Amino acid sequence: MTTRNIWRLAKRPVGDIADGDLEFLSEPLPPLAEGQFLLRLTYLSLDPTNRIWMSDMEQYMPPVEIGAGMRGGVCGRVVESRKDGVAVGDLFAGLGEWTDLMVSDGTGLSRLPEIPGIPLAAAFGTLGLVGPTAYFGLLDIGQPKPGETLVVSAAAGGVGQIVGQIGKIKGCKVIGIAGGPAKCAWVVDELGFDACIDYKSQDVGAELDRLAPEGIDINFEQVGGDIMVAVLKRMRWFGRMPLCGLISGYNAVDAAEPPGFWTQMLMRRLTVRGFIVTDFAPRFAESGMALAGWMLEGKLKTRQDIRPGLENAATAVKDLYSGGNFGKLLVEVTPP
Ligand SMILES: NC(=O)c1ccc[n+]([C@@H]2O[C@H](COP(=O)([O-])OP(=O)(O)OC[C@H]3O[C@@H](n4cnc5c(N)ncnc54)[C@H](OP(=O)(O)O)[C@@H]3O)[C@@H](O)[C@H]2O)c1
């Protein structure tokens, strides 16, 4: 009998994810049924939304049930198949579980193309979820125009690093906001952002006044809280705000929305649009082609933060909420 390792949700976190909220188990795997295949996972994507899925709150898909395998973005190769058209060695990516061996009938998965010149971690990490999030959030909702000023928070993270680089490709002045000098230096020196504000040591509002006296046209919002308020106060008329995430509140027990800035949204005619990347799923081929093209041309660099060992997933995920990750956070379940 084959056994697998899996993280299951043992209880819903209150505040930060705590030891014991997720449980690491070794379990026997039943034989495959007709129409199923078995994936050996290569990478597990750790994403801020993992914390949302662990909560029984209003969200864009059902929360993970207590006792269920923890949901996550996965990629892996087929090691056994009883499904027509699926062969051993085929590579799939999509939504799955925090496990090393995953039984699937294909639901929620699609084939991950292997692109010469793009390592699997970058193809999965960038083209899988964070790339389309950056691409559609910025291009469809942000509508960047040459010469405009774009601010992106969580700038050195999975989504933020791509948003800023697409902003530069589109001719914007790009100001990142990130935690710490190493992250700020990287987005400016390596990725070509025009500037980056270290919100942990600098006054975000004063730095925005200095760096963008003309005001801000696009706020690609990923953080919320005081950082969002500082940016919103400096938005220009007819500015746009792709509302991608509000990570500063994900672990809050009692999340409070700061009042006041809604008036500015009205008076300054801002377009604020929340979105979930899956809204754009029918167009993922478009983002995949564009992002891969920019990567192969050397216009888009990506950084992954890869942690070895499925057993470390529950510890690693906590880094997303403290800034302990530097780049798109992945767990290497099996060497590629
Ligand atoms: N709408 C969608 O479909 C969609 C899809 C993917 C991601 N998202 C959202 O996009 C955002 C970024 O996701 P990601 O996957 O790219 O993660 P990420 O940026 O790689 O990691 C999260 C980063 O957020 C920053 N952060 C955490 N707590 C913070 C706080 N209290 N204040 C300021 N910054 C904080 C940290 O960077 P620093 O070190 O710079 O603080 C951390 O590294 C999240 O809000 C996520 O929920 C949305």
Write a structural description:
- By secondary structure, the protein is α/β, with parallel strands linked by helices.
- The protein has two domains: 3-112 and 303-332, Medium-chain alcohol dehydrogenases, catalytic domain (Quinone Oxidoreductase, Chain A, domain 1); 127-279, Rossmann fold, CATH 3.40.50.
- The protein is built from nine helices and 15 strands.
- The strands form three sheets. Strands 3, 4, 5, 6, 7, 14 and 15 form a seven-stranded mixed beta sheet that branches.
- The site of NADP nicotinamide-adenine-dinucleotide phosphate has 32 residues, from helix 2, helix 3 and strand 15.
- NADP nicotinamide-adenine-dinucleotide phosphate (NAP) binds at residues 47-49, 129-130, 133, 154, 156-160, 178-180, 183, 222-223, 227, 244-245, 247-248, 275-277, 320-321, 323, 325, 328-329.
| Spatial shape | globular
Question: Which second-level CATH architecture of the largest domain applies?
Answer: 3-Layer(aba) Sandwich
Query: What is the β-strand count?
Result: 15
Q: Ions, cofactors, ligands: which are bound?
A: NADP nicotinamide-adenine-dinucleotide phosphate
> Could you say which structural class the secondary elements and strand pairing correspond to?
alpha/beta
Enumerate how many helices there are, as a single number.
9
Which ranges are low-confidence, i.e. pLDDT below 50, for 5 or more consecutive residues? Answer: none
| CATH fold label of the largest domain | Rossmann fold
Outline the biggest β-sheet.
Answer: 7 strands, mixed
Q: What is the radius of gyration? A: 20 Å
Strand content: 25-35%
Oligomerization status of the protein chains? single chain
Q: N- to C-terminal separation?
A: 25 Å
